[in-house]
Specification:
Blueprint: E1 13-16, H1 22-34, E2 42-47, H2 52-63, E3 66-73, E4 76-82, H3 140-150, H4 156-177, E5 201-207, H5 218-227, E6 236-245, H6 252-261, E7 267-271, H7 273-280, H8 283-286, H9 293-313, E8 318-322, H10 325-331, H11 351-366, E9 374-378, H12 399-403, E10 409-412, E11 433-439, H13 449-463, E12 468-472, H14 487-508
Parallel strand pairs: 1-2, 7-8, 8-9, 9-10, 10-11, 11-12
Antiparallel strand pairs: 2-4, 3-4, 5-6
Helix pairs in contact: 3-4, 4-14, 7-9, 9-11, 13-14
Length: about 500
């Protein structure tokens, strides 16, 4: 598209990006301004950076926003972008319909509690307890609320009211299935991990497609996104533009609401520190705030320690840190290969270095807290019901790392053949409880009761009856827009697990 003398349409919002390029913060500013617009809204982007001439039209094509026109006068450029297609714009729309306050990139103050609260006592989780990993399929109206809230078109109170209703349905389904420990189904989250990007200070959620102009090989990046069975335009990625802080909780509000509607023990899942470091560190953005990923990891650890302290003080029976990228480290191929497994966008070093780094981060988060109330979950990918798209490999290359984690429970994928033989885990230290995956959440067929009992019995023979917990291999809806099964099937799978637990408890007098 050639530049024109003047735009034919009046923008609803304008901002000046100065000399920022798309890889150094301009896309973050664009996202902050365009998200609150209705479909068909017009955004003017002023810039003095020459590279934007090529990068911004490419971004518009990839994100399916329409570039209406652009002007050029010396070093100054002006781009008029429509959110979506201009055909979606209603004639009655006026500038008053849109947000009038221009979002800023001002770095906010970081709040560090002077002292962290002590954990409150809770009843221990019984052997052979049944629980989900974390996520649960969201109702269609909840997914719509998630998108509208993220894009600034649904106010906080309305969003939380919708989420409360979705959590009530989720908890009720789990209770009817007969679980021992409930989760809130991660109903308030767009995904199991990236949601923290919308809560941490100086972090912003941007669609995966926004990252295309920032990478060295956009065409290869786009091919890898298409390989995902995840809607890349809907899945958002956390982008760090300043020092991370925790001026508001990540999940304490989730815990408080669940505890208000059930007397059952509650598990809260959080993304682990290694996962977040791998997810958030992108040199094209993150190095504006941090010199390297190790410095970024220091603040991630601090934020997670604060959150863990408040969750345990709030009565969480167990806090689970999700670290599926541990399997990506050892099973995904060459160390230079970029991977999108579970949102781990950044590159990595050799497996020994990465596993050591992950172990140090996890143990730094959990240091000083009661290990029996902390767990780690890992799997081999849960973005698609297609088993062939997930990673494959037994636990042998991960045993040393898992054995050195300062947590009390390991929630492990074990039902799928991709995870290898359970006997390999016999080498784990005896102080670990093992959450044994006894159903495959990816499969629509509900497991037969005898098969689940057999898997549970096998785990008891290997680990002892006091060390075994029962769970699915992973969550039922890791990504809000892409659940791997329905709520009906999820409930049926938990029910057969609860029935198997009752048989095993009776057989082993637990």
């Amino acid at each position: 598209m050639e530049p024109v003398d003047r735009h034919q349409h009046v923008p609803d919002i304008s901002f000046d990006g100065g000399d920022l390029d798309c890889g150094n913060g301009l896309l973050l500013l664009i996202r902050k301004h365009i998200d609150p617009l209705a479909r068909g809204g017009l955004l003017e982007i002023r810039s003095s950076e020459t590279s934007v001439d090529e990068d911004l039209p490419a971004w518009c094509r990839m994100t399916k926003n329409e570039l209406m026109s652009w002007t050029k006068a010396g070093k100054q450029r002006s781009f008029l972008v429509c959110k979506g297609a201009f055909s979606e714009r209603q004639a009655a729309v006026t500038a008053a319909s849109f947000a009038t306050q221009s979002p800023s990139m001002t770095v906010v103050a970081i709040t560090i509690p002077a002292t962290l609260p002590a954990p409150v006592a809770v009843a221990p989780i019984r052997p052979l307890s049944v629980m989900g990993i974390g996520s649960w399929p969201r109702p269609r109206w909840m997914i719509q609320a998630l998108h509208e809230h993220t894009e600034g078109r649904l106010d906080e109170a309305s969003f939380q009211a919708a989420a409360d209703d979705a959590v009530r349905l989720t908890v009720d389904a789990q209770v009817r299935a007969g679980v021992d420990v409930v989760t809130d189904g991660e109903q308030r989250r767009d995904s199991y991990a990236s949601f923290v990007g919308g809560l941490m200070d100086n972090c912003q959620l941007i669609p995966l497609t926004d990252l295309l102009p920032l990478v060295d090989d956009p065409e290869e990046f786009e091919r890898e996104l298409r390989a995902l069975d995840v809607p890349a335009g809907d899945v958002r990625h956390p982008a760090v533009f300043g020092p991370l802080g925790r001026s508001k909780p990540l999940a304490v509000h989730e815990l408080e609401f669940v505890k208000s509607i059930t007397d059952k023990p509650v598990k809260i899942a959080l993304p682990g520190p290694y996962l977040l470091t791998r997810t958030m560190w992108m040199e094209c953005i993150s190095d504006r705030a941090y010199a390297n990923r190790e410095n970024l990891a220091v603040d991630i650890v601090r934020v997670l320690r604060e959150e863990l302290a408040f969750l345990l003080a709030g009565g969480a029976a167990i806090v689970q840190f999700d670290e599926p990228v541990l399997s990506e480290v050892v099973f995904s191929g060459p160390t230079t290969q970029r991977s999108f497994m579970c949102g781990a966008l950044s590159g990595k070093n050799d497996p020994i270095t990465e596993l050591g780094f992950a172990r140090e981060l996890i143990n730094a988060v959990t240091a000083g807290f009661p290990a029996e109330r902390i767990g780690v979950h890992m799997c081999r990918g849960n973005w698609s019901p297609d088993e062939s798209k997930a990673l494959c490999g037994n636990y042998n290359p991960l045993l040393e790392t898992l054995s050195q984690l300062d947590v009390g429970t390991l929630f492990l994928e074990l039902c799928t053949p991709r995870a290898g033989e359970i006997e390999i885990l016999q080498a784990l230290p005896e102080h670990f409880r093992i959450g044994v995956g006894v159903c495959n959440q990816k499969l629509n067929d509900v497991e037969m009761l005898d098969d689940v009992i057999r898997k549970g019995e096998q785990a008891i023979q290997i680990f002892g009856k006091e060390r075994v917990l029962l769970n699915p291999d992973c969550g039922f809806a890791t990504f809000a827009d892409n659940p791997v099964t329905s709520d009906r099937i999820a409930q049926a799978k938990l029910k057969v697990m609860a029935q198997a637990s009752a048989v095993l408890r009776d057989r082993h007098r637990i």
